[in-house]
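Work Package 3 (structural annotation) set out to generate three-dimensional models for the target panel prioritized at the project kickoff. During this period the team completed the workflow that converts sequence records into discrete structure tokens, so that structures can be stored uniformly alongside our sequence database. As a representative example, we reproduce one entry of 302 residues exactly as it appears in the project archive.
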Amino acid sequence: MAPTAHKHEAAAPSHLRAVEPTSGRRVITLGGRALASVSADRSRVNVVRATSAEGLPAIDVLAGLAARDPTGLIFIGHGSRGLAFALDHGRITSAYGTEPRGSMSSWSAAAAPGDAKVWVKDGREASLDLLGAFIQRCVLERLSFATETGSILTVVRGDVCWLGASLSRDRAPSLQHVLMEHARETDEVSRLKARLGQSTWIASRGTPPDGPASARPALRAVPNDETSFGDLAALGDTDSSPLALLSAVWRMCDGSTTVDELASQSVFGRSPTMRALWELKTRGNVEFSAPAKVQTPAAQIM
């Protein structure tokens, strides 16, 4: 989905930060939602577009751009699906996706209140911590759009301003880190699919994963600031998933949803959810079974 620009009088205020567009500016929208204002003077705005071709994905252009620590707006669209995020010197300060749970409000509302501890650490500002986790997960889950043939990458730089909630640069994840994490998660999902077996099998709950902490391998500390948004960024560097995540995924196993559906629908992301499912399976907390065959009524001969 390509972004469009048109005149707009005001943007809805945000509980963290909102910027009201003034006269002489245009508003960029994606999926009908106003995301950013840009100068109406075209000499003050630079727009670059790249289209993914077979064997030449637009994500390669994004990777090259990330090395320059850019400031501006990034839009990635493929068909009706879209992703937009703001950059401040290479740091992703806000994001929005057109898919389900692509906004901060819909994403956080989809998680049970107790699941917030998967991302939020004690003693920190919960709203900003959760926003940081959403930004990283929103972009990670949608970067694959830029690998699909026909997808369009749009970079807008210059006199631009994101409308809505955003993080300060010192709290935001870097684009380079998120790109590397996306590559790691893509590889991990392939391995986990092979381990889990049939992705169309149904996951059912067994005993809850609430054993003593001593029975679980400890998280290995990762000495870089990219793990500041809780355990999500560190999942690839641990032998086990955090207990809060295991418990949340365990509750999702309702005996009627397939493994692939769980991974696709989870607010925690495909890779963390599949990693949690694998650990729950090895611990005996969930069981996988083939879906019941639908009986087709025999045709009656009149």
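Confidence is low (pLDDT under 50) at residues 6-20, 212-239.
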